[in-house]
Design goal:
There is one protein chain. This protein has helices spanning about 1-15, 35-40, 45-80, 90-120, 120-150. With about 150 residues, the chain is mostly helical.
Length: about 150
């Protein structure tokens, strides 16, 4: 589950520059307030914002399908793990399916991120990378505090 969360978080952060305008309906990624902030922080032009929004819209169906596929595969694996009659071979097959689904989600996110990166200037790419690194450090710190609260110190 942690790998899925990390994968999704990385995907969401990669899509931050593309959140110039909040899209209708549920969309994987950060909340609506983060898109305009990132657009301002990167000083995106109107053309860049429109291009990035189009990229996000083009990838949205794949992201939704892959996210649902991951959820179903992980739910099937969790259910099988709870069933003592499930054989190890069946568990391996279910694990492979869940792992493959997570990887496909990562690939869809990577394709989106690469297209968005192509729209940005080198300076904007550097600033976005800085923003992602800072967000990642904050996430790690929150996880560390959560683990400490649960008594799971490493």
């Amino acid at each position: 589950m942690t790998l899925l969360f990390r994968s999704f978080a990385i995907l969401a952060l990669a899509a931050l520059p593309g959140l110039a305008q909040p899209a209708p309906g549920p969309v994987p990624g950060p909340g609506p307030a983060e898109g305009p902030r990132m657009a301002r922080a990167l000083n995106l032009t109107g053309a860049q914002q429109a291009s990035i929004q189009a990229i996000r819209e083009r990838h949205r169906p794949d992201l939704v399908v892959q996210r649902d596929t991951v959820r179903r595969a992980q739910a099937a694996l969790r259910a099988a793990l709870q069933d003592p009659d499930t054989s190890e071979a069946q568990l391996r097959v279910l694990h492979d399916k869940a792992s493959s689904a997570r990887f496909e989600l990562l690939l869809v996110g990577r394709a989106l991120r690469q297209e968005v990166q192509a729209v940005l200037t080198p300076e904007q790419r550097a600033k976005a990378a800085e923003w992602r690194a800072t967000a990642q450090a904050h996430r790690r710190e929150r996880v560390r505090h959560f683990r400490m609260a649960l008594g799971m110190n490493d």
